[in-house]
Amino acid sequence: MRVLVVEDIRKTAAFIRKGLAAEGFAVDAVHNGEDALAAAITTPFDALVLDIMLPGCDGLGVLRRLRERGVRTPVLLLSARGQVNERVEGLNAGADDYLPKPFALAELIARLRALGRRSAESTPLVLRVADLALDTVTHQARRGERAIELTAREYRLLEFLLRTPGRICGRMLLLEKVWDYDFDPGTNLVDVYIMRLREKIDAGEDRKLLHTVRGAGYVLKESP
Fold this sequence. Notes:
Layout: E1 2-6, H1 10-22, E2 26-30, H2 33-42, E3 47-51, H3 59-68, E4 75-79, H4 84-92, E5 97-100, H5 105-122, E6 126-129, E7 132-135, E8 141-143, E9 146-148, H6 152-163, H7 171-178, H8 189-202, E10 210-213, E11 217-220
Helix pairs in contact: 2-3, 6-8
């Protein structure tokens, strides 16, 4: 699961991020409402851990704006106050679960996994662009009737591109989301893996799906 943690207390955010990462989650963290909105709108997270008490736009404001924009990512609210009326307000605004502070990390992880299972039941298991299909349960990819063998990293790259079809993805974005690097390590990793993926997806095909946008990045889409 890829999770966005929204917590203004950096020590708490680092604690949550470290604990989730140790359990195999891919975790991003931001510390205010505006950054949370920008991240949640542009990136296909599997869940959000959203603190209510945030500077500027608070957690409930973030939640309402996301739901108004049609972002259905499951949201687990956190709050130090924990009054019943606040929980009700959060759930009415579109939250999927609520956890009062202080909390046990094990409970947070269990609740996120439960949200992930619920979300998976209502999320398409097969991602598609044109005749390219990726089964997110079996990790099997096909182009038409042709099976495509993928390494673990190639699968992760293709899944990200299929979850954001038509979006130009720059190298730094792909490094962050696929390799979990939040800096440029000075390698050509992205270019190498895009080349490998393109060979597997587009080789011998009349319609090319994985395109390079010069100076901007890469995009997966069906050409007109």
